[in-house]
Amino acid sequence: MEPNGSPASYGYRMPGEWERHSRCWMGWPERPDNWRDDAQHAQRVFARVASEISKFEPVTVCASSQEWENARSKLPKHIRVLEMSMDDAWFRDIAPTFVVRDKSSSPGYDGQRVAGIDWNFNCWGGLGDCCYRDWSKDILVARKILEIEAVPRFPEDMVLEGGSIHVDGEGTCLTTEECLLNPNRNPNLTREEIENRLMSYLGVRKFIWLPRGLYGDDDTNGHIDNICCFARPGVVILSWTDDKSDPQYERSAEAFSVLSNATDACGRRIEVIKLHIPGPLYMTEEEAAGVKVMNAKYRFAETRLAASYVNFYIANGGVIAPSFGDEKRDREAYNVLCSAFPDHEVVMIEEAREICLGGGNIHCITQQQPA
Amino acid sequence: MEPNGSPASYGYRMPGEWERHSRCWMGWPERPDNWRDDAQHAQRVFARVASEISKFEPVTVCASSQEWENARSKLPKHIRVLEMSMDDAWFRDIAPTFVVRDKSSSPGYDGQRVAGIDWNFNCWGGLGDCCYRDWSKDILVARKILEIEAVPRFPEDMVLEGGSIHVDGEGTCLTTEECLLNPNRNPNLTREEIENRLMSYLGVRKFIWLPRGLYGDDDTNGHIDNICCFARPGVVILSWTDDKSDPQYERSAEAFSVLSNATDACGRRIEVIKLHIPGPLYMTEEEAAGVKVMNAKYRFAETRLAASYVNFYIANGGVIAPSFGDEKRDREAYNVLCSAFPDHEVVMIEEAREICLGGGNIHCITQQQPA
User: Fold this and answer.
1) Is the pLDDT assigned to residue B332 strictly greater than 70?
2) Do A147 and B80 count as a contact with CB atoms less than 8 A apart?
3) Nearest-CA residue of chain B relative to A83?
4) Active site residues of A
5) Nearest chain A Cα to B76, which residue?
6) Is there a contact between B148 and A65 if contact means CB atoms under 8 Å apart?
7) Fewer C-beta within 10 Å: chain A N or C terminus?
8) Which of B78, B83, B140 sits opposite A85 (nearest CB)?
């Protein structure tokens, strides 16, 4: 199932997240050194996210052997629950990046419409910067998913997480320098070499580089999916704050400036929709105390949470977005998303803070498989 | 995915093994207290069996998290390798028994053609008689397979292993009293109650009970699939010996007598094809010494092996059968199988003795999923 040559050479491209999905993939959180109170809250919220997505498209949740029965019992019957070992449950970053092509368009690999990219993964920074000390199970997740689905696999030795790239499906890739050019990922690749790899893997031809990701998003070194995303070709949603004293302000303003001066692969100017962040929010004493000290990054009370509404998932006809208990900003976010996605039903997940405590949000724990 | 009512009430029946398959399921052996030399020989032979079957139909091999990469590396690429935990690798007995129905014929469960029965399992006899001390992972295998395939599941609390029944797909069930009426399986069910359950689960209406299974087949308490099987409706193949001093003789003669006087569900007399057993064969010192003493039944040198050629798998257009290094009997078996299956290609697996050392053979490690 492993063709030679790059996906683009076979006519594949990464579709926009709003293009039709056959399925959503998720993991199941369990590590007590990242998810407080033995992951019981995180599991409840993951189950909620899975349930909401499953109203729009089929969902598969993967859980370890130890957790399979627990996951099965906590998820609705129509959600498929498979056994799979993992080091943590960030399927955006460890599941394959799926690519598609028109059946008629391309010669080569078995004529299959969907394929998957299996990037290299170093736990968001490798030894020294990793979020936990052993990621040997994470590394196999993409391959196992492609095996289950009998989808061709393109292995790639460049380190990359799915959450560090966004595409519009029409040739444009949106990403951050803070992450992709970080020496803890691919120190031997220049910006140009990285662009070349992404062109041949994602089928893109134009890059928009934001300098930095969200303030406080140190776990991922500023993943794009926590600060900015496409709503459709030519339109992005950018995490914003009006508070000039917030260190987020200069990051958002800088991104706004880049986006305002950018054109996409089709030559369009970019329309930027601002979406105000909640809070600022901080980890509480109780929350930090619930995380066991073992083999993962320590979690401290008073840490600024990298909380952002753009970390949502676009399902078939639905947008599943986090809310944070900040009434004013939650309501604003709901309204902004409803108007950005007039053809989608927007669903806000109330306890999404629990996912944020673990270092990401709804987009980070999901991965769409195109139809 | 769990309907109320029995499979038969929805129009399902267990098909004959020669009816079209969509796939064959197998496990991956690893326990060093059942498979000598840390399962290295067994893994080689399982891989060989999987490869041969894959020439006739798709094959999925399930391996534990620890063994997944090893299994993946030892199997051809076109075989799908999935992660699944298990206590041992006897998929005939722990995977679901699949049933089918004509789409047009039956109302009820989602109109799906294929469903699976998830029997209860007590490790071939429960506490005291079990082959190993913990079978908690085995118990979940059938459910996990049905989950992967999104096939409806019929849970059943009666203890039954797939290897203890054979059907002709036309209403007849062939089984042994030694196993099904053994008090270590379902002490609270009478023969009539067991028949009633099997009628409502397998869609059969007539039973042929052989008194005993193969001599020496103590692990399974005389599974039918090691002594006798259907070649097609109205025709069975029976393990035989001409040696009246062999304790197998009276078992085979007794079975022959029962079969000769039986009619099947369609009123046909049964044609019996005799297939001479190899050997007799015994476990060597070296073989016994390679099995670690841990949590499984001990293996002793000089033990008579329950070696039989009827423990084969019928694939789409192929018959995958064991050979044992007994030249004369191996050749006889090949000839008998070729003439019993004129439309199938017969493939003999040379090192099948390795599977026999673990307590079964090719039929015991495979499970067909009907098309």
Assistant:
1) yes
2) yes
3) B84
4) 364
5) A1
6) no
7) C
8) B83
The Cβ-side half-sphere exposure at B193, using a 13 Å CA radius, reads: 9
Shortest Cα distance from B4 to chain A (angstroms)? 14
Q: Is the pLDDT of residue A4 over 80?
A: no
Sign of CA dihedral A260, A264, A266, A272: negative
Residues of chain B found within 8 Å of residue A137, distances taken between Cβ atoms: 65
* Secondary structure of residue A235 in the 3-state scheme: strand
Residue of A nearest to B79 (CA): A147
What are the residues whose beta carbons fall under 8 Å from the beta carbon of B286, sequence distance 6 or more? none
**C-beta neighbour count of B158 within 10 angstroms:** 17
What single letter denotes the amino acid at residue B42?
A
> Do β-strands B59-63 and B21-26 pair in parallel, antiparallel, or remain unpaired?
parallel
What is the band of A112 on the pLDDT scale with cuts at 50, 70, 90? confident
Q: In this complex, which of A2, A72, A85 lies closest to B65 when CB atoms are compared?
A: A85
Preceding amide of B211 cis, omega within 30: no
* pLDDT tens digit sequence for A339-362: 999 999 999 999 999 999 999 999
What is the residue-averaged pLDDT of chain B? 96
pLDDT of residue B5: 87
DSSP string, B58-83: -EEEEE-TTTHHHHHHHS-TTSEEEE
% helix, strand, coil for chain B, step of 5: 30, 25, 45
State the CATH architecture for A8-370: 5-stranded Propeller (3.75)
Residue B1 has pLDDT above 90, yes or no: no
Q: What's residue B112's pLDDT?
A: 85
Cis-peptide, bond into residue A280, ω within 30° of zero: yes
Using the Cβ of A142 and the Cβ atoms of chain B, whether some distance falls under 8 Å is answered with no
Model confidence at A94, in pLDDT bands (50, 70, 90)? very high
Listed by start position, the domains of chain B span: 8-370
Residues of B in contact with A83 (CB under 8 A): 83-85, 144
pLDDT at A43 over 70: yes
Measure in Å the smallest separation between the Cα of B123 and chain A Cα atoms.
Answer: 19
Is B82 in contact with A148 (Cβ distance < 8 A)? yes
pLDDT (mean) for A289-301: 94
**Which residues of B are less than 8 Å from A85 in CB distance?**
65, 83
Distance from C-alpha of B308 to C-alpha of A200, rounded to nearest angstrom? 55
CB-based contact, B69 to chain A, within 8 Å: yes
**pLDDT for res B182:** 97
Distance CA A61, CA A320 (A): 16
What does the pLDDT read at residue B234? 98
Q: Which chain A residue's Cα is nearest to B150? A: A80
φ, ψ (nearest 5 deg) of residue A243: -85, 105
Percentage of chain B beyond pLDDT 70 is 97
Of the candidates A15, A204, A195, the residue with the CA atom closest to the CA atom of residue A101: A15
Helices (H) and strands (E) in chain A, counts: 10, 16
* Contact state of A85 with B82 under an 8 Å Cβ cutoff: no
- Which active-site residues of B does the annotation give? 364
What's the whole-number mean pLDDT along residues A83-91?
A: 98
Q: Check whether B318 has a pLDDT greater than 90.
A: yes
Q: In this prediction, what percent of chain B has a pLDDT beyond 90? A: 95
Q: Compute the average pLDDT of residues B335-361.
A: 98
B65 and A69 in contact by Cβ < 8 A?
no
A305's torsion region: left (phi>0), alpha (psi -120 to 50) or beta?
Answer: beta
